[in-house]
Design goal:
The chain is an alpha/beta fold and 230 residues long. 30% of the residues lie in helices and 21% in strands. It has 6 helices and 10 strands; from the N terminus they run E-E-E-H-E-H-H-E-H-E-E-E-E-H-E-H. The chain has helices spanning 31-42, 55-63, 83-93, 112-123, 182-188, 212-229; strands spanning 5-10, 25-26, 29-30, 47-51, 99-103, 129-135, 144-146, 152-154, 171-181, 196-200. It has a 6-stranded mixed sheet with strand order 4-1-5-9-6-10, sandwiched between helices. Strands 2-3 form a two-stranded antiparallel sheet. Strands 7-8 form a two-stranded antiparallel ribbon. It starts with a strand and ends with a helix.
Length: 230
C-alpha cells in the first residue's frame, strides 16, 4: 500500500442558512479558499481534492489550487448525506492510500501547522483517527432544563455548587478536520473510531459557521489573527 496522504474537502452547493456559504467572500477570498490554501501550504498531501456537486464551487476550488477529479452525485448532496458517505464515495474513486484527511471548507482558522501536527500525531501513534476538538464556551454540566411553563432548573443539580474549575474537562468536535486510517474507516464506516485522539484547538479557531452571526464572528476573529501575523 502506498504511504500517501490525500486531503478531501467536502463542499456541496446547497447551503440553507447561509446561501452559497462555501464560496462566500471571507476576508478577501472565498471561504473555501482558506482551507484549500492551508492544505496546499502544509506540504504533506499528495493531492488536495474538493468533492462537490456544484460547478461554481468546482471552478473556485480549481482557481485556488485544488483538484476536482470527479463531480459528486446528487444523492450525496442533500441534507441526509453524511460526511462519512461523501468520504466513502471519494475514496472509492481514488487510488488506494494509507491515510486521508477530511478538511471542512468552513475552517478558515486552520493553519498548515495544525494540519502537519495532526498528521505527525496519527503517524507516530496507534490512533485510527486524529480529530480537532475544543472546549465548550460554557460547561455543559451547568446547563439548565426548561419546562413547558418556562421555568428552568439545573439539568444536573448535583453540580449546582461545583466550581467550574473542579468540573471534569469536556470537549466537543471543533468541526475542522479529521485525519484517519483509510482501511479502518472503510471497514467501520465511522470517522470517529474507538481509537481516536483529540487534538485540542483554542476556541477562537473553532467557530462553527452555521448562521450569519457565526460567519461575521469568524471573519472578525480571523481578521484579528491575520493582523497579528503581519
Amino acid at each position: 500500500m502506498l504511504e500517501t496522504l490525500v486531503c478531501i474537502i467536502p463542499a456541496r452547493g446547497g447551503s440553507k442558512r447561509i446561501p452559497r456559504k462555501n464560496i462566500a467572500a471571507f476576508n478577501g477570498k472565498p471561504l473555501i479558499g482558506w482551507s484549500i490554501e492551508s492544505a496546499l501550504h502544509a506540504n504533506i498531501f499528495s493531492r488536495v481534492i474538493v468533492s462537490t456537486d456544484d460547478a461554481e464551487i468546482a471552478a473556485v476550488a480549481k482557481h485556488h489550487g485544488a483538484e476536482i477529479p470527479f463531480m459528486r452525485d446528487e444523492n450525496l448532496s442533500d441534507d441526509f448525506a453524511t460526511t462519512a458517505d461523501v468520504l466513502t464515495d471519494a475514496l472509492s474513486r481514488l487510488p488506494e492510500c494509507t491515510y486521508a484527511c477530511c478538511l471542512y471548507p468552513t475552517a478558515p482558522m486552520i493553519t498548515p501547522s495544525d494540519l502537519k501536527n495532526a498528521y505527525t500525531k496519527i503517524k507516530t501513534s496507534a490512533a485510527d483517527c486524529v480529530m480537532s476538538v475544543t472546549d465548550y464556551d460554557f460547561h455543559p454540566l451547568r446547563a439548565f432544563a426548561r419546562q413547558e411553563d418556562g421555568t428552568v432548573s439545573f439539568h444536573w443539580p448535583e453540580y449546582e455548587l461545583t466550581r467550574s474549575q473542579d468540573l471534569p474537562e469536556m470537549l466537543h468536535d471543533a468541526g475542522a478536520f479529521y485525519f484517519f486510517n483509510v482501511q479502518t474507516f472503510l471497514k467501520s464506516g465511522k470517522l470517529i473510531a474507538k481509537n481516536t485522539i483529540g487534538m485540542k484547538l483554542p476556541r477562537k479557531q473553532a467557530v462553527d459557521i452555521d448562521t450569519q452571526e457565526d460567519f461575521e464572528l469568524a471573519q472578525a476573529l480571523h481578521l484579528l489573527e491575520q493582523e497579528g501575523k503581519s
